[in-house]
Each structure stands twice: as C-alpha cells, then as structure tokens.
Amino acid sequence: MKKNILVIPGDGIGQEVTQWGKAALEQIAKNFGHEFTFDEALMGHAAIEVTGNPLPDETLEKARRSDAILFGAIGHAMYDNDPSLKVRPEQGLLKIRKELGLYANLRPILLFDELLEASSIKAHILKGTDILFFRELTGDVYFGEKSRSEDRNTASDLMIYHRYEVERIAHKAYQAAQQRSKRLCSVDKANVLESSRLWRETVQEIAKQYPDVETEHMFIDNAAMQLIKNPKKFDVVLTANLFGDILTDEASQIAGSMGMLASASVGDGVGFYEPIHGSAHDIAGKNLANPLASILSAALMLEISIGLKEEATVLVNAVDKALKDGYRTGDIADQNTNAAKVLGTQEMGSKVLSLIK
Fold this sequence. Notes:
about 350 residues, alpha/beta, 10-stranded mixed β-sheet, globular, branched-chain amino acid biosynthesis, 3-isopropylmalate dehydrogenase, leucine biosynthesis, manganese, IsoCit/isopropylmalate_DH_CS
C-alpha cells in the first residue's frame, strides 16, 4: 500500500501531538510493509505569522494532492482576546473544509473501561456507551451571511441549509447505522427554526430508503440533557454544524477528556483527521498534552481513507493496552493513578509506539 499523507501540525499543542500520530503511522508502515510518504504544511496562527494567510495556497495545493491529512489544532489566545481581528486561524480550517468538500464530521465516542472514573459522569451510567456522531460541516451559521450594523450594536448570522447538504450527510449516517445497531437519532430544533424544519423533513424522506434503521428525531435541548442522563440511549447521532459542535464537546466528558477523542472530516475525496481538542496554548511546550487522540485519529485515517482496518485496530489496541497497564497523561489521571505512571506527551507517545512495535 502506497499513500501520500499530509501532516498539518497547526498551532499550540497541535505541533506536539501530531508527531505521535505520524510516528504511529510510520510504525504501522514498517510492521505491515506499507509505504507512506509524508509532507508537512502550515495552517492557522502559524501560517498567519509566516504568510499573513491562515490557509496558504501552497497548503491547499498539497492537501488536494494528498491521500489523507493528519491535522493538529489551530488557535491562539491573542485572537480570543481581540474579536476585532479580521484575519483569524479558524478561517483556515473553515476554508479547507469548504475547498476539499469535507461535509461530514465523524466523531466516535470511544469509551475505554479504564477511564470510566476519569469522567465527571458516574461510571455505571457510562459503561457500555458507544456513539458515532455525524456532524454536518459546511453549512449552518458558520458559513451563512454575517453582518453588523453601522453603530456596531446589532449583529446577525444567517443559519442556512440547502436540501442537498442534508441529504448527503444523512446517507452517510444511515449507511453507518446499518453497519452498527441500526439505530439513528437526528437532532434539530424543528419546533423553532425553519432550517431545522427543512433538516427534519429531508431526514424523514431519506429514512424511507433505509427501512431497516430505526429513526428517532430529538430537539437539541433534549438531546443535550439525554446525552448526560443516559448516553447508552444513542448509537448514530446525525445533526447540523452548530448543534454537532456543542454536542460532541459535551460528549468528550463521556470519554473522560477531550484528549481522548479523534475525529474524521470526510466528503467524496481526501479525508481530514484530527483530535477534537483545541490548541491549548496554556499547556503548549510543557510536555503535558495528551497524544492519544492524535494516535486514534491516525487509526481512523487507516480505516476510513486507506482501508486498512486490521492496522487501525493495532493502533486502538496499543492505546487500550497502555491504559490497561495504568499509564495516564495528567488530563485522564485520577486519585487512584500511580504517580509514577502519570506520563508527559513524549513519554506517553513513546509508550504507545513501543506497544505498536
């Protein structure tokens, strides 16, 4: 198997964790005799500092030529503290999703039993949870027309969806549900929002093509509550861009930490794989970041974009073994963790790599 993989470390801890996702892929290539060629590119604040552009043309061109992309994170505190800045790291991420047609964000909530106590939710509520989120990625308020009044006292963001945008991600979600427990929950706010009424109407039509899948519709406020009350209720969750952003961050508590959750952004071409955590500049460069989500993102890449399920399982099993052996980064350690087994970014990455070998 020969594949070209683009690594975009991005900002903050993204630069620390992607090296371990890449190292995991390199080790898999050695173990199984594959040939993975790697290139690297700038995006986000790092790209703004060098080029003034959060997504340089060179990066976009490399992305288009690659078979898959391993991404870290973007962002910097300077932008959070100054909302008036016109050029922002997030613009690069939104643009690459649009340019590559990455309309479906897949976020598996993979729960390792060893981390049941790391969550703020009671273990008996969590145990057995297995959720796959499908978040629409190229529509909604993030891409709708934005405006501010001349006196700067009124602002608006257009929440917009086209039927085809809902149809294409709904098909992907239903196809995944057919391979799982044949249950799908579509989340919207159809009692208030016209865009959600279009969403529900479209999903109801698509559901007729998948009669073997049980479909449930749920309002976003109820879904947010049920996710904490009874997460085992959900299997495949299909939702819009804004609602999916919120729900999947909420769901990170089910897995114990954002540092444990991988994601895939896919469409009909190249796939984009990243941890769901941000750039976390407050811990950047301190050897504190959790590299496991980047390694699990590499596993998603192997399975979805490269079609190597066995190899993907090797990475997941290596992470699982490290946890079973008691090793933790600070974000997933608890009062029962042996202090000698609380590892930094480099040490945890090395531990998992040794298990892959």
